[in-house]
Design goal:
- This protein is mostly helical.
- It is 74% helix and 0% strand.
- It contains 12 helices and no strands.
- Helix 9 packs antiparallel against helix 10.
Amino acid sequence: MEEVGKSFEKLVNIMKRLRSPGGCDWDRAQTHESLKPYIIEEAYELLNAIESGNDEELKEELGDVLLQVVFHSQIASERGAFNISDVVETLCEKLIRRHPHVFGKSGGYSYKQWEDIKAKEKNKKSVSRIGDLNPALPALSMARRIQENASAVGFDWENVEGVFEKVLEEFEELKKSFSEGDKGRISEELGDLLFSVVNLSRFLNVDPENALRKATERFWRRFRRMEEMIEKDGLKFEDLSIEELDRYWEKVKGGDLK
């Protein structure tokens, strides 16, 4: 543990040096606002590293995420707001407070206990037993979190077959709204369909955000390969009909390009 403390202290001191007079001009110019895009980028790069299964990449990306925490803490320290020690201590207190079944005399973990503790921390009572909506989350993650919370209090499908049927039901309702030209309900029904698909992903133990990202990346790779094939055949993409493009697309898919 002493080695961990020394490494962390070294990191904090490096950050202080970068932000100090005579340090790095770019680092000194950053603010909480200017760094917002980087924390999002680093989080997604960490997800990619986890997916890759490469421990070297995982180690590096975890460091990049940690850098963002230290960076923001240093800026806050310069403002006299708080420092990295306050951040760590606040986290330690929260972990202990939210795990009375480990650090206290509570009988065991329960979702209700977890939500009650969170509500007490924020000095308010949750409007629902499945917790409050977190508007900071992306829509897919928000849907999955609420579904998990509902499941934790016993409101869930009994099996995955029921979820498959619900997806098909919502798809038919969307088609019906479209055929009737009911523009007011099309968006609503599409939202219901997406919500049901997220629910299905939960039952299949697949993260919907990652699944969609991978599908988009796969589409891009296949499209790029299609462009290369067309160019190799001496043709121009713009001159081809949709039927001809479809034939190239099927060739790409037939090549098992994953």
